[in-house]
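F.,

This is the one I mentioned.
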Protein backbone atom coordinates (compact mmCIF):
# COMPACT_ATOMS: atom_id res chain seq x y z
CA UNK A 1 0.00 0.00 0.00
CA UNK A 2 1.47 3.36 -1.08
CA UNK A 3 2.01 5.95 1.69
CA UNK A 4 -0.61 8.65 1.99
CA UNK A 5 0.52 11.92 0.40
CA UNK A 6 0.07 15.39 1.82
CA UNK A 7 -2.70 17.43 0.14
CA UNK A 8 -1.42 19.24 -2.94
CA UNK A 9 1.86 17.27 -3.13
CA UNK A 10 2.84 15.80 -6.53
CA UNK A 11 2.87 11.99 -6.38
CA UNK A 12 5.58 11.61 -9.03
CA UNK A 13 7.85 14.12 -7.27
CA UNK A 14 7.36 12.31 -3.95
CA UNK A 15 8.26 8.99 -5.57
CA UNK A 16 11.45 10.44 -7.09
CA UNK A 17 12.38 11.94 -3.73
CA UNK A 18 12.01 8.55 -2.01
CA UNK A 19 14.21 6.91 -4.65
CA UNK A 20 16.85 9.62 -4.29
CA UNK A 21 16.80 9.19 -0.51
CA UNK A 22 17.40 5.46 -0.90
CA UNK A 23 20.23 6.06 -3.39
CA UNK A 24 21.78 8.68 -1.09
CA UNK A 25 21.56 6.32 1.91
CA UNK A 26 23.15 3.41 0.01
CA UNK A 27 25.94 5.53 -1.44
CA UNK A 28 26.64 7.03 1.99
CA UNK A 29 26.93 3.56 3.52
CA UNK A 30 29.16 2.47 0.63
CA UNK A 31 31.35 5.54 1.08
CA UNK A 32 31.63 4.90 4.82
CA UNK A 33 32.63 1.27 4.27
CA UNK A 34 35.14 2.22 1.55
CA UNK A 35 36.64 4.98 3.69
CA UNK A 36 36.91 2.66 6.71
CA UNK A 37 38.61 -0.04 4.62
CA UNK A 38 40.99 2.54 3.17
CA UNK A 39 42.01 3.64 6.68
CA UNK A 40 42.40 0.04 7.86
CA UNK A 41 44.50 -1.08 4.86
CA UNK A 42 46.70 1.96 5.34
CA UNK A 43 47.03 1.17 9.05
CA UNK A 44 47.43 -2.61 8.94
CA UNK A 45 51.04 -2.78 7.74
CA UNK A 46 53.01 -6.05 8.09
CA UNK A 47 56.07 -4.31 9.51
CA UNK A 48 54.12 -3.22 12.60
CA UNK A 49 53.86 -6.86 13.68
CA UNK A 50 57.65 -7.21 13.50
CA UNK A 51 58.12 -3.94 15.35
CA UNK A 52 55.74 -5.06 18.11
CA UNK A 53 57.60 -8.37 18.46
CA UNK A 54 60.91 -6.54 18.66
CA UNK A 55 59.51 -4.18 21.32
CA UNK A 56 58.34 -7.11 23.47
CA UNK A 57 61.75 -8.74 23.14
CA UNK A 58 63.40 -5.46 24.08
CA UNK A 59 61.16 -5.19 27.16
CA UNK A 60 62.11 -8.72 28.29
CA UNK A 61 65.77 -8.04 27.65
CA UNK A 62 65.64 -4.78 29.63
CA UNK A 63 63.89 -6.52 32.55
CA UNK A 64 66.67 -9.13 32.63
CA UNK A 65 69.29 -6.38 32.52
CA UNK A 66 67.61 -4.69 35.50
CA UNK A 67 67.82 -7.91 37.49
CA UNK A 68 71.47 -8.31 36.49
CA UNK A 69 72.19 -4.73 37.54
CA UNK A 70 70.58 -5.39 40.93
CA UNK A 71 72.60 -8.57 41.30
CA UNK A 72 75.84 -6.64 40.84
CA UNK A 73 75.12 -4.47 43.90
CA UNK A 74 76.71 -5.92 47.01
CA UNK A 75 74.26 -7.01 49.73
CA UNK A 76 76.16 -5.08 52.39
CA UNK A 77 75.86 -1.89 50.34
CA UNK A 78 72.13 -2.46 49.94
CA UNK A 79 71.71 -2.88 53.70
CA UNK A 80 73.84 0.15 54.50
CA UNK A 81 71.84 2.25 52.03
CA UNK A 82 68.52 1.02 53.43
CA UNK A 83 69.68 1.92 56.96
CA UNK A 84 70.79 5.36 55.77
CA UNK A 85 67.44 5.98 54.06
CA UNK A 86 65.60 4.95 57.24
CA UNK A 87 67.75 7.30 59.36
CA UNK A 88 67.10 10.09 56.91
CA UNK A 89 63.33 9.59 57.12
CA UNK A 90 63.48 9.53 60.94
CA UNK A 91 65.50 12.77 60.98
CA UNK A 92 63.06 14.47 58.63
CA UNK A 93 60.14 13.47 60.84
CA UNK A 94 61.93 14.69 63.97
CA UNK A 95 62.84 18.02 62.33
CA UNK A 96 59.57 18.48 60.46
CA UNK A 97 58.68 21.79 62.15
CA UNK A 98 62.08 23.29 61.41
CA UNK A 99 62.01 22.01 57.82
CA UNK A 100 58.49 23.39 57.25
CA UNK A 101 59.56 26.74 58.66
CA UNK A 102 62.57 26.92 56.31
CA UNK A 103 60.45 25.78 53.36
CA UNK A 104 58.00 28.61 54.07
CA UNK A 105 60.90 31.06 54.19
CA UNK A 106 62.20 29.74 50.87
CA UNK A 107 58.76 30.12 49.27
CA UNK A 108 58.60 33.76 50.39
CA UNK A 109 62.12 34.40 49.12
CA UNK A 110 61.21 32.80 45.78
CA UNK A 111 58.33 35.26 45.47
CA UNK A 112 60.55 38.17 46.47
CA UNK A 113 63.23 37.08 44.01
CA UNK A 114 60.66 36.89 41.20
CA UNK A 115 59.41 40.42 41.86
CA UNK A 116 62.89 41.94 42.16
CA UNK A 117 64.15 40.03 39.12
CA UNK A 118 61.19 41.28 37.06
CA UNK A 119 61.84 44.89 38.14
CA UNK A 120 65.54 44.42 37.40
CA UNK A 121 64.86 43.13 33.88
CA UNK A 122 62.17 45.71 33.09
CA UNK A 123 64.40 48.53 34.29
CA UNK A 124 67.19 47.27 32.04
CA UNK A 125 64.76 47.36 29.10
CA UNK A 126 63.73 50.92 30.03
CA UNK A 127 67.40 51.92 30.14
CA UNK A 128 67.91 50.65 26.59
CA UNK A 129 64.93 52.70 25.41
CA UNK A 130 66.01 55.81 27.36
CA UNK A 131 69.61 55.53 26.07
CA UNK A 132 68.39 55.33 22.49
CA UNK A 133 66.11 58.36 23.00
CA UNK A 134 68.92 60.36 24.59
CA UNK A 135 71.48 59.51 21.93
CA UNK A 136 69.02 60.43 19.17
CA UNK A 137 68.18 63.75 20.84
CA UNK A 138 71.84 64.50 21.53
CA UNK A 139 72.80 63.69 17.95
CA UNK A 140 70.11 66.01 16.60
CA UNK A 141 71.03 68.74 19.11
CA UNK A 142 67.50 68.81 20.58
CA UNK A 143 66.79 70.87 23.70
CA UNK A 144 65.20 67.81 25.34
CA UNK A 145 68.56 65.97 25.37
CA UNK A 146 69.34 67.23 28.89
CA UNK A 147 66.09 65.89 30.35
CA UNK A 148 66.52 62.61 28.53
CA UNK A 149 70.01 62.33 29.94
CA UNK A 150 68.66 62.91 33.47
CA UNK A 151 66.02 60.24 32.92
CA UNK A 152 68.67 57.78 31.71
CA UNK A 153 70.88 58.53 34.72
CA UNK A 154 67.96 58.06 37.11
CA UNK A 155 67.09 54.70 35.53
CA UNK A 156 70.71 53.56 35.74
CA UNK A 157 70.74 54.40 39.46
CA UNK A 158 67.51 52.45 39.95
CA UNK A 159 68.99 49.52 38.04
CA UNK A 160 72.15 49.54 40.17
CA UNK A 161 70.04 49.55 43.35
CA UNK A 162 67.89 46.72 42.05
CA UNK A 163 71.00 44.73 41.18
CA UNK A 164 72.21 44.97 44.79
CA UNK A 165 68.74 44.05 46.03
CA UNK A 166 68.61 41.06 43.70
CA UNK A 167 72.02 39.84 44.86
CA UNK A 168 70.85 40.18 48.48
CA UNK A 169 67.69 38.14 47.82
CA UNK A 170 69.67 35.43 46.04
CA UNK A 171 72.17 35.26 48.92
CA UNK A 172 69.38 34.97 51.52
CA UNK A 173 67.59 32.34 49.45
CA UNK A 174 70.80 30.31 49.01
CA UNK A 175 71.40 30.53 52.77
CA UNK A 176 67.86 29.28 53.48
CA UNK A 177 68.32 26.42 51.02
CA UNK A 178 71.61 25.53 52.69
CA UNK A 179 69.85 25.40 56.10
CA UNK A 180 67.17 23.13 54.65
CA UNK A 181 69.80 20.87 53.09
CA UNK A 182 71.59 20.69 56.44
CA UNK A 183 68.36 19.63 58.16
CA UNK A 184 67.85 16.94 55.49
CA UNK A 185 71.53 16.05 55.09
CA UNK A 186 71.23 12.35 55.89
CA UNK A 187 68.29 11.92 53.52
CA UNK A 188 69.99 13.88 50.73
CA UNK A 189 73.20 11.90 51.17
CA UNK A 190 71.14 8.70 50.96
CA UNK A 191 69.50 9.88 47.72
CA UNK A 192 72.89 10.68 46.26
CA UNK A 193 74.30 7.31 47.31
CA UNK A 194 71.25 5.53 45.88
CA UNK A 195 71.73 7.23 42.52
CA UNK A 196 75.39 6.20 42.50
CA UNK A 197 74.83 2.60 43.59
CA UNK A 198 71.78 2.00 41.39
CA UNK A 199 72.84 4.22 38.49
CA UNK A 200 72.60 1.40 35.96
CA UNK A 201 69.24 0.21 37.31
CA UNK A 202 67.81 3.75 37.26
CA UNK A 203 68.90 4.17 33.64
CA UNK A 204 67.31 0.86 32.67
CA UNK A 205 64.12 1.70 34.58
CA UNK A 206 63.79 4.91 32.55
CA UNK A 207 64.38 2.94 29.35
CA UNK A 208 61.78 0.34 30.32
CA UNK A 209 59.25 3.06 31.11
CA UNK A 210 59.65 4.46 27.59
CA UNK A 211 59.49 1.19 25.64
CA UNK A 212 56.93 -0.83 27.67
CA UNK A 213 53.58 -0.97 25.82
CA UNK A 214 50.65 0.60 27.67
CA UNK A 215 47.52 2.69 27.24
CA UNK A 216 49.54 5.71 26.14
CA UNK A 217 51.36 3.83 23.38
CA UNK A 218 48.12 2.03 22.42
CA UNK A 219 46.35 5.38 21.98
CA UNK A 220 49.28 6.85 20.05
CA UNK A 221 49.21 3.91 17.63
CA UNK A 222 45.46 3.92 16.95
CA UNK A 223 44.26 4.46 13.36
CA UNK A 224 44.28 8.10 12.23
CA UNK A 225 45.77 9.18 15.62
CA UNK A 226 49.03 7.46 14.62
CA UNK A 227 49.68 10.28 12.14
CA UNK A 228 50.61 12.54 15.07
CA UNK A 229 53.35 10.81 17.09
CA UNK A 230 53.18 7.00 17.06
CA UNK A 231 55.52 4.80 19.07
CA UNK A 232 55.56 2.28 16.21
CA UNK A 233 57.87 3.71 13.57
CA UNK A 234 60.08 2.40 10.82
CA UNK A 235 63.49 2.35 12.49
CA UNK A 236 66.51 2.86 10.28
CA UNK A 237 69.69 1.61 11.94
CA UNK A 238 73.27 2.15 10.85
CA UNK A 239 75.31 -0.88 12.04
CA UNK A 240 78.85 -0.05 13.13
CA UNK A 241 81.69 -0.85 10.72
CA UNK A 242 79.28 -2.02 8.02
CA UNK A 243 79.47 -0.08 4.77
CA UNK A 244 78.55 -0.27 1.10
CA UNK A 245 81.18 0.33 -1.56
CA UNK A 246 79.80 3.22 -3.63
CA UNK A 247 82.26 4.35 -6.31
CA UNK A 248 85.31 3.38 -4.23
CA UNK A 249 83.89 5.14 -1.16
CA UNK A 250 82.66 3.37 1.96
CA UNK A 251 79.12 4.57 2.63
CA UNK A 252 77.42 3.58 5.92
CA UNK A 253 74.88 0.81 5.38
CA UNK A 254 71.33 1.51 6.52
CA UNK A 255 69.25 -1.39 7.77
CA UNK A 256 65.72 -1.79 9.14
CA UNK A 257 66.42 -4.97 11.07
CA UNK A 258 64.10 -4.18 14.00
CA UNK A 259 61.23 -3.37 11.64
CA UNK A 260 61.40 -5.60 8.57
CA UNK A 261 62.70 -8.90 9.94
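My design for it:
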Amino acid sequence: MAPKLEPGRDAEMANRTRKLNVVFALTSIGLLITFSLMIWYDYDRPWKKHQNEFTLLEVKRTELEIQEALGKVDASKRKALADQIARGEDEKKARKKDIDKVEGEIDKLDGEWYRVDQDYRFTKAKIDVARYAFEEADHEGAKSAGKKREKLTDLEKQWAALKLKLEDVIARRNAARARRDELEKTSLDADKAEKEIYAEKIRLDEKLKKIRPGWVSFTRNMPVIDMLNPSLKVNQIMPANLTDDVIFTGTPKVDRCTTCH
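The longest strand covers residues 243-246.

Talk soon.
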